[in-house]
Design goal:
The chain is of the alpha/beta class. Helices cover 27% and strands 27% of the residues. The termini are far apart. The mean pLDDT is 96. Bound molecules: adenosine monophosphate. Adenosine monophosphate (AMP) binds next to helix 1, strand 4, helix 3, strand 6 and helix 4. Belongs to the ETF beta-subunit/FixA family.
């Protein structure tokens, strides 16, 4: 069973992002970039399926500029077998990425496609769902457990206040939630090995996909700063403020 995993290069989760002065977006100059954390979980899950003998090959794909090769190498250091870069400098919206992934599904015919539930830069939570619709495949989003039983995928999903287990016919699309697994650290030998693994490059034009944006960002603003605190002289004043000003008691 071939597994395809989508990995996005995003601003590292520990970076405090700055909004550009003209409000047109986030400043990416000299900012540390990393693999999207949910995609790292997706790669780990695919590699575990391979280690269990369930998957035969793990292919990772990233869409974006040439620097996404680094993201693919990170995924290959975790254990993916090969990478595909869909190279473009265009700003990619989830629908464009879903169309690119659909074109790759047509070429690669994976039985399982694993994506992150969301990219931590745009927080869209759309690509997996759009891909499932475009490829007409069953989907299980927010997965916290994935098993392949009798040729079907059994996926436990994190839903409000509990868990739901669904069974999907393969081929299928799964998106990962945080508790699915804890990704391993890539060891130095595996990082070295990953440098030699095959990495193919293609383009949206070669895949026949028009990635022209359909949305325009009107403005981007920083979150409001926290208001300064006040000191109160006694408990009675505190209680009065909580009651009358904050209205929380
Ligand atoms: P989003 O819908 O943007 O929140 O992204 C959800 C998931 O889609 C991510 O966790 C990735 O698995 C995948 N994805 C989104 N953008 C890209 C991209 N440019 N390249 C590869 N995978 C992507």
């Amino acid at each position: 069973m071939k597994v395809l995993v989508a990995v996005k290069r995003v601003v590292d989760a520990n970076v405090k992002v700055r909004v550009k002065a003209d409000g047109s977006g986030v400043d990416l100059a000299n900012v540390k970039m990393s693999i999207n954390p949910f995609d790292e979980i997706a790669v780990e899950e695919a590699v575990r399926l391979k280690e269990q003998g369930v998957a035969s090959e793990v292919v990772v794909v990233s869409c974006g500029p040439a620097a996404c090769q680094e993201t693919l190498r990170t995924a290959m250091a975790i254990g993916a077998d090969r990478g595909v870069l869909v190279e473009t400098d265009a700003a990619l919206e989830p629908l464009a990425v879903a169309k690119l992934l659909k074109a790759l599904i047509d070429k690669e015919a994976p039985q399982l496609v694993i994506l992150g539930k969301q990219a931590i830069d745009d927080d869209c939570n759309q690509t997996g769902q759009m891909l499932a619709a475009l490829a007409a495949r069953p989907q299980a989003t927010f997965a916290s457990q994935v098993e392949i039983v009798d040729g079907k995928a059994r996926v436990t999903r994190e839903i409000d206040g509990g868990l739901e287990t669904v069974q999907l016919a393969l081929p299928a699309i799964v998106t990962t939630d945080l508790r699915l697994n804890e990704p391993r650290y890539a060891t130095l030998p595996n990082i070295m090995k990953a440098k030699k693994k095959p990495l193919d490059t293609t383009t949206p034009a070669q895949l026949g996909v028009d990635v022209t944006p359909r949305l325009a960002t009107l403005r981007t603003v920083e979150p409001a700063g926290r208001a300064a605190g006040v000191k109160v002289p006694d408990v009675a004043t505190l209680v009065a403020k909580l009651k009358n000003e904050a209205k929380v008691i």
